[in-house]
From TrEMBL:
Domain ABC transporter: 349-597
Localization per Swiss-Prot or TrEMBL: Cell membrane
Primary site of residence: membrane
Name used for this protein in its record: ABC transporter ATP-binding protein
PANTHER family membership: ATP-BINDING CASSETTE SUB-FAMILY B, ATP-BINDING CASSETTE SUB-FAMILY B MEMBER 6
Residue intervals passing through the bilayer: 32-57, 69-87, 253-278
InterPro entries, A to Z: AAA+_ATPase, ABC1_TM_dom, ABC1_TM_sf, ABC_transporter-like_ATP-bd, ABC_transporter-like_CS, P-loop_NTPase, Type_1_exporter
Pfam families according to UniProt: ABC_tran
Membrane topology: Multi-pass membrane protein
Length: 603
C-alpha cells in the first residue's frame, strides 16, 4: 500500500478524464445501448434546428405563389416535425432503458470501490467523507449522467446548426452566436461558484442530516426525551441547515445579476440582427423569416444549452469527477504487497518504534511503541480513554499503516503482506460492532462466509461466545429473525447483540490474530471474566499445537486483563510498561496503581 495521505489524491481529476472514465463504465454496462442512446439524442436535435429552414422555404413559396413548392415545403415542415417528435421519444425511451441497465452497474461500482479500498481513511477523514457524501447521495441516480451528457451534446449541436443557418444568410450573423457566448461563460462561472459554496458547506449539511437521524430514530428517542434536548437538537439542525444554504443563496443571487445582464446583451444583439437583414433591400422575405425563426430559437437554444450545461456541471459532471477521484484513490491504496501470509506463527508479532498520526491531523496517537507478542500469547492492552488502544488494533488489522516504524509478522513487515489475505487469517469483535438484522444463524455465519452454511461451525461459535444463552430464550432459537421491524423479528438487548457479534468473531478456524476490542463492554464484569477465561484457555490449548495464533484483548476491566500473558500499558500515546500481571504488580508502576484502585472498588 502507498501512503494514503498523498496530496496528489486530494485533487479532483480533470473533467475530460472523469467523463472518459464514466463513459467507459457506461460502455461496459451495455455497449450497444449507450451508442444508440447517444445517436438518438444527438439526431433528435437535427430536425428541430432545420425547422427554421423549412419555414423560410415555405414563406418564399407562398409569396412566390408556387403551389407545388408550397406543398413540398409544407410536407417538409410536417416531416421535420414528425421526425423531431419520433427521435425525441425514441431518445427518451432508449436513454431510460440504458439508465436502468447502467444504474445497477454504476451503483455497484461505487459501492465496490468504497468497500474494497483496503484502508478506512475515506470513511473517517472529514474532507474525504464530505467528498464522498455527494457521490453516495446521487449513486442510485448516477446513471442519469449519461442522459444529461447526451442532452448537452444535442443542445450544442442544435445551437451550432442554428448559427450555421444564420451565417448562410450573411456571415456577419454568426456574431449573434458570439453574442450568446457571455451567457454560457457566466453560467459556467456561476456553476463553479455555487459548487464551491456547496462544498464549503458540506460539513453543515452532514451535521444537519446527522441531527435529523438523531432526532427521528427510535434508538436516540429515549435519551433525547429524558435529557429534554429535543428542541435543542431541532434548533441546531435548523442552524446547520441555514449555515449551509445561506452562502449558497448569496452566491446564487450575486451571480444572477451577471446572468441577467448577459441575456439582456444577447436580446439587444438579436434585435439588431433582425433589423440588419430587414433593412437590406435585396433580402427575400424567406431570409427575414429564417433570421426571425432561427434567431428567436437561438436564444431558446442558448438558454437550453446553458441550463443543460449548468445542470450537468453542478451535479453530474461533479459526480463523474468524484467517481474518477474515488477510482484513482482506490488505485493509490492498492496493494503493493509481495510477501506471503505466514501459515503459522513462531516468532510472533513485533511493534518496532511504531508511531502513528491520523491523516489530516497533527497529533501523534501512538509514539515510538515497541513490544513483541510471542506466538500463542494472549495480550491485553490497557490505558485511559483515548490512549490509543483501538488505534493499535486498527494498525494490526492493516486498516491504517504506521506513520513511522513498522509492525513485523514472523520478521516480515506487515505492509508487505497483502491486506485481504492477512484479514482472512484474522478474527475478532469490536466495540462498535454491526447489528446485522438477519436470522441469528446468518448474522453469526457472516464471520466466515466459507463455513457459514455449516450448522456445526455456527453452533460452535455461538457456544464459544456464550450466545447459546441468547438463542435459548428466542422464539425460534438460532433461526430467529433479528430486528424488531421485520416480520417475526426480535429486538435484542445491547449485551445480547454483543454476544452475537462475538460469536461472529469466533467463526474463523485457526486465525493468526484474534482482536477483541472491548467486545463485551455491555456485559457485566463477571460474565466478561468467565467468557474470556474460557476463551483464553481454549486459545492457549489450540495455539501451542497448531498455528500459534495470538489474541489481542482491549478491556478496561482489570479482572479480565490480569489473565493475559502480556499486558501492555499505554499512556499519552506511549507504551509505559509491559509484562505479566505479576511482574507489573511487583513493579509497582502505573498498572499496579490502576489495578489497586479497581480491586479496592470491587472489595
Ligand atoms: N479516525 C480518527 N481520526 C482522527 N483522530 C482519531 C480517529 N480515531 C481516533 N482518533 C483519536 O485518536 C486517539 C486515540 O483513539 P483510540 O480510539 O485509539 O483510543 P482508545 O484508547 O481505544 O480509547 P477508548 O478507551 O475510549 O476506546 C483519540 O484521541 C482519538 O480522538
Amino acid at each position: 500500500m502507498t501512503a494514503t495521505s498523498d496530496r496528489s489524491t486530494d485533487q479532483l481529476p480533470s473533467a475530460v478524464r472523469s467523463l472518459a472514465s464514466s463513459l467507459r463504465l457506461g460502455y461496459r454496462a451495455d455497449p450497444w445501448l449507450i451508442v444508440v442512446a447517444f445517436a438518438t439524442s444527438v439526431a433528435a436535435a437535427v430536425p428541430d434546428a432545420l425547422f427554421a429552414l423549412g419555414l423560410a422555404a415555405f414563406t418564399d413559396s407562398v409569396i412566390g405563389g408556387d403551389g407545388t413548392a408550397v406543398l413540398m415545403s409544407a410536407l417538409a415542415l410536417s416531416l421535420l416535425a414528425a421526425c423531431g417528435w419520433l427521435l425525441n421519444t425514441a431518445a427518451e425511451r432508449v436513454n431510460r432503458r440504458f439508465a436502468d441497465r447502467a444504474g445497477i452497474v454504476v451503483e455497484s461500482h461505487v459501492a465496490r470501490l468504497q468497500s474494497e479500498v483496503v484502508t478506512i481513511e475515506h470513511h473517517e477523514r472529514p474532507d474525504f467523507v464530505d467528498r464522498l457524501s455527494l457521490l453516495r447521495d446521487h449513486a442510485p441516480a448516477l446513471s442519469e449522467l449519461y442522459q444529461q451528457l447526451f442532452a448537452v451534446a444535442g443542445a450544442v449541436l442544435r445551437l451550432g446548426l442554428t448559427v450555421a443557418l444564420l451565417m448562410s444568410v450573411h456571415p456577419a450573423l454568426g456574431l449573434l452566436g458570439v453574442c450568446a457566448v457571455p451567457t454560457v461563460l457566466v453560467s459556467t462561472w456561476r456553476a463553479g461558484i455555487e459548487k464551491s459554496a456547496e462544498e464549503a458547506g458540506a460539513q453543515h449539511d452532514r451535521l444537519a442530516r446527522h441531527l435529523f437521524v438523531v432526532g427521528s430514530t427510535p434508538a436516540a428517542g429515549k435519551e433525547l426525551r429524558v435529557a429534554g434536548v429535543r428542541q435543542r437538537i431541532r434548533a441546531d439542525r435548523r442552524a446547520a441547515w441555514e449555515r449551509r444554504y445561506r452562502p449558497m443563496a448569496r452566491a446564487r443571487w450575486a451571480t444572477a445579476i451577471w446572468q441577467s445582464a448577459s441575456y439582456a446583451f444577447f436580446g439587444i444583439a438579436f434585435c439588431v440582427a433582425v433589423g440588419f437583414v430587414a433593412q437590406r433591400g435585396d433580402s427575400p422575405a424567406g431570409q427575414v423569416m429564417l433570421v426571425l425563426a432561427a434567431g428567436s430559437r437561438l436564444s431558446q437554444y442558448v438558454g437550453q444549452s446553458v441550463s443543460q450545461t449548468h445542470f450537468f456541471r453542478t451535479i453530474w459532471l461533479d459526480c463523474a469527477r468524484r467517481l474518477a477521484w474515488l477510482e484513482g484513490y482506490a488505485r493509490t491504496v492498492e496493494e503493493r504487497a509481495d510477501a506471503p501470509v505466514p501459515e503459522r506463527l513462531r516468532a510472533g508479532i513485533s511493534f518496532e518504534n511504531v508511531s502513528f498520526t491520523y491523516p489530516g491531523t497533527d497529533r501523534p496517537v501512538l509514539k515510538d511503541v515497541s513490544f513483541t507478542i510471542p506466538a500463542g500469547a494472549v495480550v491485553a492492552v490497557v490505558g485511559e480513554n483515548g490512549a490509543g488502544k483501538s488505534t493499535l488494533v486498527k494498525l494490526l488489522c492493516q486498516l491504517y499503516r504506521p506513520t513511522s516504524g513498522r509492525i513485523t509478522v514472523e520478521g516480515t513487515d506487515l505492509s508487505r503482506i497483502p491486506a485481504p489475505g492477512w484479514r482472512r487469517r484474522l478474527s475478532g469483535a469490536f466495540q462498535d460492532f454491526v447489528k446485522f438484522e438477519y436470522p441469528l444463524r446468518t448474522s453469526v455465519g457472516l464471520g466466515d462466509l466459507a463455513r457459514a452454511e455449516l450448522p456445526r461451525a455456527v453452533d460452535e461459535a455461538v457456544t464459544r461466545a456464550g450466545a447459546d444463552e441468547v438463542t435459548a430464550v428466542l422464539p425460534r432459537g438460532i433461526d430467529t429473525q433479528l430486528g424488531a421491524t421485520w416480520p417475526e423479528g426480535v429486538e435484542l438487548s445491547q449485551g445480547q447483540w454483543q454476544r452475537v457479534a462475538l460469536a461472529r468473531g469466533f467463526m474463523r478456524r485457526s486465525p493468526l490474530l484474534t482482536v477483541l476490542d472491548e467486545p463485551t463492554s455491555a456485559m457485566d464484569a463477571e460474565t466478561e471474566h468467565a467468557l474470556f477465561e474460557r476463551y483464553a484457555e481454549a486459545a492457549r490449548a489450540s495455539s501451542s499445537s497448531t498455528v500459534g495464533g495470538v489474541t489481542i484483548l482491549v478491556s478496561h476491566r482489570f479482572s479480565t486483563v490480569q489473565m493475559a500473558d502480556v499486558i501492555v500499558v499505554l499512556d499519552g500515546a506511549r507504551l509505559v510498561e509491559h509484562g505479566s500481571h505479576e511482574e507489573l504488580v511487583a513493579r509497582g508502576g502505573q498498572y499496579a496503581e490502576l489495578y489497586g484502585i479497581q480491586a479496592a472498588g470491587y472489595r
